[in-house]
Design goal:
inorganic pyrophosphatase (n-terminal core), five-stranded parallel beta sheet, 11 strands, 13 helices, 325 residues, alpha/beta, Diaminopimelate Epimerase, Chain A, domain 1
Length: 325
């Protein structure tokens, strides 16, 4: 953390980058970095190649998120992205910009290789927002309601409001500080998990209608097609949280959501219990993440991608059983 803090202290202009299809953790962390930088008298911006999902419209300054950096290159802070490529096409579109910028990498994905001039990777953190909260303390930036709200959004989403085992004692201590600073925990929880439009419920109904299981119910899976999105008028981000619903299946050790992106592109989200390692499943297809939550993109149609991923999930379950996890 100290190297990261030192680079940020010396910066004049800070561009905070989110990963593609941004969630509460990457957006909350990037917004908090930008707000903190401005409080330290620096210029700052938040960049996301994809627009913030509607359920995160409560985040402070979310309306100012840019698709591409507007500031002259100085420091690029990449948050919650296991690989630099995860921030999307901006890496190639602004290759000259990135060649001149100092890159800071803050993340909690165990698969992150530590790219950048300064990196702080802590897989024990429940969310990147947990790390950014600690970083702000090191930088001497006091928490206020805006910062606390942005940071709590990431922690709430990545821990499923502290229901997942990744929520540690440190996570809870950080969350308590954020509540004391004004984070409206109940309102954030409702915005992230409960305030769903009818179109989202209709989409989820279509996905639930097609659920399947393998390995005697230990692997539960569902799919989201582009046709489902078209028929309900929803965006791909409306699937956020659905894989956690699948995980409520009593026997499930592995839950998988297949998301059709195009004719030859399928995104896969995996959640696991202690019997299987999600990264072991997704890494077979070039993905990564955390032991209990990971993802990958398969260069194949949804139908073609499904069987190899499910087969790998069954193999990982067998390995987990052999390990006695």
């Amino acid at each position: 953390m100290l190297d990261v803090a030192e680079v940020l202290r010396g910066a004049e202009r800070i561009s905070a980058f989110c990963h593609e299809n941004p969630d509460g953790d990457t957006l909350g962390a990037a917004i908090a970095i930008a707000l903190a930088a401005e409080r330290l008298g620096k210029q700052a911006e938040v960049v996301s190649v994809d627009p913030p999902p509607p359920f995160l419209s409560f985040l402070p300054r979310v309306e100012r998120v840019r698709r591409s950096p507007a500031l002259e290159p100085d420091v690029a802070v990449v948050v919650d992205a296991g690989e630099l490529s995860r921030i999307g096409s901006v890496v190639t579109e602004k290759a000259d910009w990135f060649a001149r910028a100092r890159i800071v990498n803050i993340d909690h994905h165990v698969s992150n290789p530590g790219y950048g001039e300064a990196a702080w990777i802590d897989p024990e953190a429940a969310a990147t927002c947990e790390l950014v909260t600690l970083l702000l303390a090191e930088l001497g930036v006091p928490l206020d309601e805006q910062l606390a709200t942005a940071l709590m959004a990431g922690i709430v989403q990545d821990t499923h409001t502290f229901a997942h085992p990744n929520a540690t004692a440190r996570t809870l201590r950080v969350a308590a500080e954020l509540v004391e600073a004004g984070a409206p925990l109940a309102a954030i929880n409702r915005a992230v998990y409960a305030d769903k439009p009818f179109s989202t419920l209709a989409l989820w109904g279509l996905m639930l209608a097609g659920i399947g299981q393998r390995a005697g119910g230990r692997v539960v899976h569902a799919s989201m097609t582009t046709a489902m999105l078209a028929s309900t008028g929803e965006r791909p981000t409306a699937s956020e949280g659905f894989v956690d619903l699948l995980a409520s299946s009593k026997l499930a050790d592995v839950t998988i959501l297949f998301k059709e992106v195009g004719p030859e592109e399928t995104r896969v989200s995996v959640r696991t219990t202690g019997r299987a390692d999600a990264v072991a499943i997704t890494s077979a297809f070039g993905g990564g993440g955390h032991a209990r939550a990971a993802g990958c993109t398969v260069a194949a149609s949804l139908e073609a991608a499904r069987e190899p991923v499910l087969a790998e999930a069954e193999r990982e379950l067998a390995r987990g059983d052999a390990r006695g996890r």
